[in-house]
TrEMBL record:
Protein name: ABC transporter ATP-binding protein
Cited InterPro entries: AAA+_ATPase (IPR003593), ABC_transporter-like_ATP-bd (IPR003439), ABC_Transporter_VariousFunc (IPR051782), P-loop_NTPase (IPR027417)
Domain ABC transporter: 5-227
CDD domains: ABC_DR_subfamily_A
Keyword Transport: yes
Gene Ontology molecular function: any one: ATP hydrolysis activity
Highest taxon of source: Bacteria
Keyword annotations of the record: ATP-binding, Nucleotide-binding, Transport
PANTHER family given in the database record: ABC TRANSPORTER ATP-BINDING PROTEIN ALBC-RELATED
Organism lineage string: Bacteria, Bacillati, Bacillota, Clostridia, Eubacteriales
Pfam families named in the record: ABC_tran
Amino acid sequence: MNNIVEMKNLTKKYMKKTALKDVNLNIEKGKIIGLLGPNGSGKTTMIKILMGILTQSTGEVSIAGKKPGTETKSMVSYLPDRNFLYKWMKIKDSIDLFDDFYNDFDREKAKKLLEFMELEEDMKVTKLSKGMQEKLNLTLVLSRNAKLYILDEPIAGVDPVAREKILDAIINNYNEDSSMLITTHLVHDLERVFEEVAFLKNGEIVLNGNVESLRNERNMSVDELYREVFK
Ligand SMILES: Nc1ncnc2c1ncn2[C@@H]1O[C@H](COP(=O)(O)OP(=O)(O)OP(=O)(O)O)[C@@H](O)[C@H]1O
């Protein structure tokens, strides 16, 4: 199967509010897609449906051919937009936690990523700066051999140097047998990572396509395109 994620006429309503409306979106194996949209456009709702935390109102969604649920949870590696580690932990404890919890966790990969990120196993999680925390979170998430990686605002609040390091880690450690969905408001910074983008506006996909073709067709960067669509 070529698509890891398939969404067909996906709609989600919270009471009267329609958060996702008739979304048709596929993510092919080996692709990194940027899910872009302003506050309240429906990004978190889509992620929660993919994670099996929320159920859609109508339409269909599958991950590697399966409906989101117990089976797909083990295939999805998720980076939340806030820190999720316990205060008492050292970096090595967080590695142990992930290793215990996920069968697909690759300790060797985690070790290499820590080195790349210039993080040491004995550092306490609470003593890490925001950028270092983000690097650790990303190390944990990328060290799993998942089918789908979901990164929610991976570089928010991180300085430009750390940002570049994080982006390099994403590109270099990306597994071609999987797909990756990244949400961000920092379109300009993440542009080089995306192969595809989907623009979400008021719950609807208003633009979706290959970044290279979009750039050539419209003669502008994704960032410029984003500003034009959402101005
Ligand atoms: N539990 C809920 N009950 C009612 N409305 C909700 C609920 N969760 C989200 N919404 C609404 O659904 C819409 C989409 O919200 P969502 O959180 O998916 O947007 P988002 O794109 O992730 O925003 P942000 O960038 O601010 O995180 C918004 O209008 C929001 O107010």
